[in-house]
Amino acid sequence: LDILDMIPELKKQIEKEPSEHKAFEYDQIVSFGELWSTLIFAEALKISNVNCKWNDARKTIRTSNHYQNARIDWPKTKTLVNDRILNKFKENNSLDCIVTQGFIGHTNTGMTTTLGREGSDFSAAILAWALDAKEVFIWKDVAGLLNADPKEFDNPLKIDKISFKEAIELSYFGASVIHPKTLKPLQNKNIPLRIKSFIDPESSGTIIQSDESCDANQASYIYNKNQLLISISPKDFSFIMEDHISEIFYLFSKSGLKVHLMQNSALNFSVCANMKKAMLKNLIDELSEKYNVKYNENVDLLTIRQYENHVFPEKLKNKNILIKQRTRSTLRYVLN
User: Fold this and answer.
1) CA 187 to the chain's CA centroid
2) N or C of the chain: less Cβ packing under 10 Å?
3) E-assigned strands of the chain?
4) Pairing verdict, β 220-234 and 291-305
5) What angle do CA 322, 324, 328 make, to 5 degrees?
6) Distance between CA atoms of residues 280 and 235, nearest Å
7) CB-based contacts of 126, cutoff 8 Å, min separation 6
8) Segment 235-274, tens digit of pLDDT
9) 3-state SS string over 44-97?
10) How many CA atoms lie within 13 A of 307 on its CB side?
11) In 3D, which of 311, 310, 283, 308 has the Cα closest to residue 295?
């Protein structure tokens, strides 16, 4: 295959009458960016005398038909990866590398799918899992995993070593470098992940592995802006019970609200979350049928992980604390 071979295929996709399945149409078109960039890269390697083969991930990574967020068929993918990648190395001893795409896969009927947020990193983890790799390298524009977002805080520190467990916790709280779905298959097979900088490739980066001994060495700061704080109480001043919370979460799920923090008392249940603003009025209207509802838009959520030796960020000291929560290893503030 080359780019010229694919142009008629893309032209056909663009010119045909689109279906009502927007996610399906998206996947069929956006995948060409991955395919073409890897074809160009493979040719550049060949010009530099690197013996490489180009591989089509649309025939290697088997997924469900959940377009834009496909789920992996792990057993079938392992078979395909071994057939299409591992066997190429066995057949050709002089082969230096195989160039393939991230982010894309295929269904059992051959339709192209994409893997959702951080799909390219996830693809690396899928291939490593299938090949029983010794280590995975992911290249970023930062020195490694940092203990704070450099766009929000001055002079963040690099984390040299961290466990899978702690990295998943940081990601869950909103750290943006590595997604939990990338870490899970590596954790399952104890395959270390090293995050390195393509700006400074000689630096050591961060290694994520199973050893938890260094996790508490350094506080990490995760700062989520533009959050929504909703406080809900029964109109009859009855206690907030499990059936109330079940009903409330049904409405949250229906509206697409993503909860990041919860707090409840006898008469009040509060969440800090985010959602599409277009859906907010409908959610408040539905909640208000049975509950008293108050809400604040544009609040901030600060999470401090391994907080024992933390210093509260100077830039946030003048903000009002609306909610404060503390567990054994995590300190969280809702601020405005």
Assistant:
1) 16
2) N
3) 52-54, 97-99, 104-106, 112-114, 136-140, 161-163, 193-197, 206-209, 220-234, 258-264, 269-274, 291-305, 321-326, 330-335
4) antiparallel
5) 170
6) 20
7) 61, 72, 77, 81, 185
8) 988 888 888 899 999 999 999 999 999 999 989 999 999 9
9) HHHHCCCCEEECCHHHCCEECCCCCCCCECHHHHHHHHHHHHHHHHHHCCCCCE
10) 17
11) 283
CA distance 126 to 131: 9
pLDDT tens track for 289-327: 999 999 999 999 999 999 998 999 999 999 999 999 999
Single out the residue of 99, 101, 103, 120 nearest to residue 43, CA to CA: 99
8 A C-beta contact, residue 88 and residue 134: no
205: closest CA among 161, 156, 147? 161
This prediction has a pTM of: 0.84
Which amino acid appears at position 213 of this protein?
A: S
Among candidates 252, 257, 263, which has minimal Cα distance to 286? 252
Q: How far is CA 162 from CA 93, 118, 189, 192, in A?
A: 36, 20, 17, 10
Sequence-ordered list of residues with C-beta below 8 angstroms from that of 128, at least 6 positions apart, any chain: 136, 185, 186, 189, 191
Q: Is 321 helix (H, G, I), strand (E, B) or coil?
A: strand
Three-state SS for 165? Answer: helix
